[in-house]
Amino acid sequence: MKNAPAPEKFRKTYDTPYLLGVYLAVNAVPDAAVMVDGPSCVITKADYIAGNHDLHSTLLSCDGRHRVMCTVTSTMPQPPNPEDKLSALLESAAASGLYGVVLLTGLPFMRLIGMDYEGIASRVRSGAPVAVVPPLSLEGDWLDGYAKALDALVCALPVRRVRKKPRSAAIVGYLFDRNERDHSANLSGLKRLLADAGVDLLAVLPGGGKFRSWERAQAAELVISMPYGRQAAARLAARTGARLVETGLPVGIAGTSAWLASVRAAAGLRGPLPPALVKLEREARRELAPAQAALAHQNIVFAGDPYLYSAVRGFALELCMRVPAVFIDSLSRPLSAPGPAAKLVMFAPEVAEAAKALAALGRYDRPRLGVGNSLAITGGLTGGVPAVELGFPSYAHHCLDDEPFMGYAGARSLAGRLLNALQSAGNDGL
Amino acid sequence: MESIVFFGKGGIGKSTLASNVSALLAAGGGSVLHVGCDPKMDSTLALMGRHIQPFSDSPGPDPEARLREFIFDAPVKGVRCIEVGGPRPGLGCAGTGIGVMLDAVRDSGLLEKDGYTAAVFDVLGDVVCGGFAAPLRRGFAKKVVIVVSEELLSLYSANKLIKMVENYARNGVYLAGLAVNAKNAAGVRTAAEFAAAVNTRVLAVIPRDPAVAAAERGRVPAVLASPKSPFAAALRGLCAAIRAARPGSSPPRAMSDREFSDFTEGRPPAARPPAPRSVLPAGRSGSSRGLAAAFTRARMKPTGLEGGQIVCEWTVPTSFDWGERGQGPAKGRTSPRGTLKIVIAPAAGSRDGPIRLSDWAVCFYPGQAEHQARGLGEELAAAAAGLAGFKYAELTEYFGRGGDHYAKISSFSERGNQAGPFGTLILPHMRLGQWQRFIFPPGGADLRVPQGAVMVEHGDIECRFSCCDNGALNLFRERPGLAGPGVSSRCPLLPKEEAHVMNTDFGALDAVRGDEALISDSLDRAARLAGPGGLVEFYLSCAPMLLAGDTGRLLERVKEERGVAAVQLGSDSAGLSERPEEEPGAAEPPGNCGSILPGFASAKAEARAAFMARKLAAFKGVKPSVDVNLIGFGDCREELAGLLERSGLTTASPGKDLYASAARGRLAVLPAPDAALCAAFSEAGLKWLVPPAPYGFAGVRAWLDGVLAALGRRTPAAGPAPGAEKERRALALAAGRYRACFVVSSEELEPLAGGTLMGGVPVLPVVLEAGFGADLLVYAPDPAARSAAAAAALGLGRKLGARLRTRFFSAPAQLDALLRRPRAMKLVYSDARLDPRVTGAGRRPFSAALFEPGYDGALETVRRLLELCECDFR
C-alpha cells in the first residue's frame, strides 16, 4: 500500500450561507426575532454565531426563548395549510410583546414550494411589525442575507414624519456581527470623529441597539451607506428624503480621513478636515510609525469578505505592505480596492485548490502574514503564516475590552495586531 | 399599469388569448411586457414569430442585467417578450424558475423603470404548486382571467384556480372573470352557469374561428392578421372587459368538491352558507375579541393542530339529554356531560359528515362519528353557527394569538406526540420555551461514518451549515462522555466536508433544471472514494426531495458500475460536522441524522451492519493476538488502556484498519451500544461488550470487572494508584460541605441513576460518591405530577442508596427561589454554558463535560467540582 494514490477528497468550499447573514442582522438587534419556515435545523445553525463568534449573543436562550425560531415545517408530509399555520405563528410572535420586530424567511425548499411570504406577513397587522427577508439561500450568500435582512428591517420601520436634525447623519449597512467590544469601540470612535467633523451621528443601523432606536435614523439629514446594506440605506434615504452618500469602510488612517472628508462633503460642510481631526490623524501616524517600519514590504494574504478586503488593502498600502493573494468567502462581486490588482483572487474557492494556488505564488509574492476569518485560518487558506483573525467568523479572537479596527484608534489597534502577529512568528524562528 | 394573468387548464387556449390581448393592449398605444410562464416556452411564439431564449438558461448574479438580456422586442409594435423557460420535461422544478424570474422583475423595478403600461402573464395550465402562483404574489398581477371551456375538467380546474385567487386576495389580486372558449352554445351555457355558481362573470365568449389557426401557422397574433374576424372582435371585447374589471363587492367563491359534484350532475345546489367577509375585517384586535367571544359562546376551545386542521374541545350543552336519546354515555367517557374533541377543517379537505359553515367545516374527531347519530351533530351545528362569519384563516390565526408562542410552535409542529425515550421531544433543540429544562441530550450519538463508508448529503449550503459544535447552548455538542473532549474546547471548522462526508451543494440551477447530473457525479466520486465493496450512504435533504428525482435508479447504476453497496437514507442529515482525524474506524460527527423520520435510523443501521460484517468477514480465521480492542473511546483510550494493562490485559494499539484491529482482539469494548457495529460483530462471531461507564471509583471497578468477566479472567481489577484513596477521602471531606442540584422533569428522574441523559456519564452517582449532597428540583405542574415525581424521586434515592432532598416547582419564579437556597447548594447541573438561571441565583453551573473516566479522572473530576464551588460566577 506504500505507493497507493492519496485518497480522493471531497470539495470543501470557502463560503458562508445566506441564512447566517440573516442571523447576523437579527443578532445585531437585541429585540428582533426571525421566524424561519423550515425544520428545526435552522435553530442549531445559530450556534455558528451564538457562543462561538459572539460571546454576548442573545440569539439563543437557555430557557428555550430563542430569537431564531422555526415553523417545524418539513418536506414530508407537506402540511395541508402551511399558510394558515404560518400566519398564526406570526400573529402570535408579533403579539407576544417580546420583540420589537419579527422577520420572516424560509429555507430553500420553501422557496421551491413558492410560499407567498409577503402576502402572509402583510396580514399581521397588530403587535410588532413583521417583515419578510426573501428566502434566497439557493441564489445568495451571507452578505446577501445580511443586506436583505437590513432592508427588511428598514421596511418594517414605522413611517413617521420627523423633523430633520441639522448636520446629522445615520450610518446604514454597518456589519455589526457581534456584540463584543470591537464593534462598540468602532462605533463610539466613529461617533466622536464625526462629531469633530461637524456631523452628529444619530444612529447606526445596525449598531447593537433595539429596533425602536432605529427610528432615530429618520431624523438624519444624511444617510451614510456602508457596503453591507446599500439597498437598506437607499430605501431609508428615499423614504425620509435624506441625502445619501455611499462610502467604504473607514479603516486605516488615510481611509478614515477620506471617509470623514466624503461624509463632510455630503453633509454640505466645506473645506479641509477641522484641526481637531488633523491633530488626531497626525498623532495616529506618529504612533503607527514604528510598526510601519517592521511591517513594510511584508506580503499579506487576505481571506474574508470583499468589503473588508477593500478596506484592509487600503490600509496595507498605507503601511507599505502588499496583498498579493485574496480569498473571498462570498459569491463573485466587483472588488473595488486601491492599488495594483492582487495576483491571486478567488471567490468562494475550493479550499485545497486555493491552498495550492497560494503555495504556487512566486518568492516575492508569498505571504508573511494572514488577515482572515476563522474559517480561512483553520481551513489553511492563510498558508500557515501567522494570521490576524478579523471579520466574521472570529472564533479564536474575542474582544472583552475595546479593540476597534475602524477610525484612527482602529488603525493603531489593527497595526498593533499585525505587528504582534508578525513578531510572534519571528519568536518561533520562522 | 394593467397587470393581467391568464390561468386555465392546459391546451385550452390561454397562450392564444394572452398573446392576442398583449397585441391589442399595445395596439392601443401601450407598452406591454408579455411574460411567458410556461416551461413549454410557446407563449411568445405568436408575438415573436420564433422561439426565444428563456431566462432560465442564464443563472448568475445581477438579475436585472440578466432580465434585460432575455427581454426581446417583438415584431408587434409596443410588445416586448420574455420566457421563463424550464427544465427538460420530467426534471427539475419549473415553478421555481417562475418564482426566481418574477422576483428579479420585482426587485429590479424593471416594469416601472422601463415605463410599461401593461404586463401580461401567461401561466402554465392548472394549479400545480406555489411556483405557478408566483404572479399572484405582492407587486405583480392584479387581474386574473381564467380561460374555460364547457369541459368538466376545465371547469374543475377553474374552480380550483378561483380558490387560489381567493387565497391571494390579500395581495390585492382579484378575478376579473372568465374567458369562455366553448365549442357550441350549450358549452357557453354550461360555462355561464358555472360563472353564476361561483359568483363571477363571463368576460367574453371566444368563437371558434379558422382565422386563429391560420394566424398561428404564420406565427402572428390573429387580431393583427385578421382584424375583421369574429375572433378579433371577441378579443377586443375581452380586452375592454378586462380593462373595465374592478374588484366586486361580492367576491367570487369556489365551490366545495361536493358542490361541484352537484353542479356537474345537474343537482340543485344545497343551501350555501353566506360567503365569509372579504379577507379580514377592519381592526384586527376587534376581530380577535369577536372571535374569542364567538368561541366562548360556541363552548369551543382550540387545543392544537393536526394535519393542518384545528382540533377543539367542545363542551356539550348541559341541556343535551343523553338519556332521552337512549344511547347512554359515549364510549370512553366517564360522564355523560363533558367535552368532546371536534375538528375544524377547510371545507375542501374536511372529513366525513362535516357541517359546512363558511370556507370551513366542523365535524367530530375521527372515531367519534357515533355522536353524529346520537343527535349531537345538530347541537354542534348550532354551536358552530356563531363562528360562521369568520374565515378559516381567521380561526387559525386566533389559535395562534396569545399564550406562549414558543409553546405554540410545538403545538403547530404536529410532532408533539412524538416523544423520545423519556417523554422529551425527539429533537433536543426543539425545546422552544421549555424554561424548566436544564439537561439537553447530546445530539446524534448514534451517528458515525464507518470506516470504508462514504456519506453523501444531497443538499444545499444551508444543510452544510446546519449545526456546529460548542455553541452557546451546545445544541449539538459533542458527547461529553467517553469519546468527548473533557473541558477542552474547539472552534467550529468548515462544516461537514472531510474525507468521508460531503454535501452536494445543490443550487438554484439544479432546482430549475434538475439535479440528476449533480447526483450522478457526487455518487461516482463517493463510490470511487469508498472503493469496490464500500458503502455509499445517500441522504436526500429537503430541497432536492421536492424535485422527486429518480434517485433510486442513480443509486442502482452506481452499485452496478462501481461495485459498491449504496443506500438512500431519507431526508435529513442535520448534525454532520467535520471533526479532526480521530481513531480509525469512526468519524463521529454529532447530529440527529436518522432521528427525524422514523425508520431511517434502522435502515441506516441495517445497511451499515451488513457492510461492516462483510468487512470483518475478510479477517475470518485471524487468530486474536490481544485481549481487548477499545473502540470509540477517543481521548479516553489511553487512560482506559492503562487501567486494563494494570489489570493484566493486553490492548490493541490504534490501527489504521478498524476491521483488522477488531479481528485481532478477543473482546471489543465499546463506550455505548452501537446498533450497526454490535450487529456486525455478532454476525462476524466477534465478542463485544458495553460495560458500565468508568466514572467514579466504583464505576471504574465495575467497568474493569465487566471486562475481566467477559474474558473469563479471575484476576482482580486494578485499583487506584497509591495515595489516591487517601486523596479521595480528603476531597470527599471537602465536598461534604457542598450540595449539587439537579433540575429535572419527572421523566428524567429515573435515568439520572445512569448516564443516559448526560452522554453516558452517570453524573449523579459520581457526585454522590464524591461526597457531595444532592438536591432534586422537580418540575411538577400539577398535584398529580407532583405525587408521581415524589414517588420516582424516592425510588431513585433508594436505588442510589442516598438521601436526595426533593423539592417541586411549576413556575420560573418558584424555580428561581428554590435555586437560591440553601447556601450549601453551590452546584447546579446545566448543559447550557454559564447558564444565567444558575449564575443569576448565585450558583455555579456544572455539566457532564467536566467528568473524566478512570481513577485519576475521578479525582480530577472532584477537584474541578470543588474549584467551581469556590469560584464566584455572579
Q: What key attributes describe this structure?
A:
heterodimer; A: 430 residues; alpha/beta; Rossmann fold; 3 domains; five-stranded parallel β-sheet; 14 helices; 13 strands; 38% helix; 15% strand; globular; B: 874 residues; 5 domains; eight-stranded mixed β-sheet; five-stranded antiparallel β-sheet; elongated
Concise overview:
The complex is a heterodimer of chains A (430) and B (874). With 430 residues, chain A is α/β, with parallel strands linked by helices. Chain A has helices spanning 18-27, 41-44, 82-95, 108-113, 117-122, 142-156, 181-196, 230-240, 253-266, 275-295, 306-318, 351-359, 374-378, 407-427; strands at 32-37, 68-70, 101-106, 130-132, 165-172, 200-205, 220-225, 243-246, 299-304, 322-328, 344-347, 369-372, 387-389.
3D structure, described in words:
- Chain A has 430 residues and is an alpha/beta fold.
- Helices cover 38% and strands 15% of the residues of chain A.
- Chain A is built from 14 helices and 13 strands.
- In chain A, the strands form three sheets. Chain A has a five-stranded parallel β-sheet with strand order 11-10-9-12-13, with helices on both faces. A four-stranded parallel β-sheet of chain A has the order 2-1-3-4, sandwiched between helices. Chain A has a four-stranded parallel β-sheet with strand order 6-5-7-8, with helices on both faces.
- In chain A, helix 1 (18-27) packs across helix 6 (142-156) and helix 6 (142-156) packs parallel to helix 8.
- The longest helix of chain A has 21 residues, at 275-295.
- The radius of gyration of chain A is 22 Å and the shape is globular.
- With 874 residues, chain B is of the alpha/beta class.
- Chain B contains 32 helices and 27 strands.
- In chain B, helix 1 (14-27) crosses helix 10 and helix 26 (724-735) packs parallel to helix 32 (854-870).
- The longest helix of chain B is centred in the last third of the chain and has 18 residues, at 600-617.
- Chain B is elongated and about 110 Å long.
- Chains A and B meet through helix 1, helix 2, helix 3, helix 4 and helix 5 of A and helix 4, helix 12, helix 14, helix 15 and helix 16 of B.
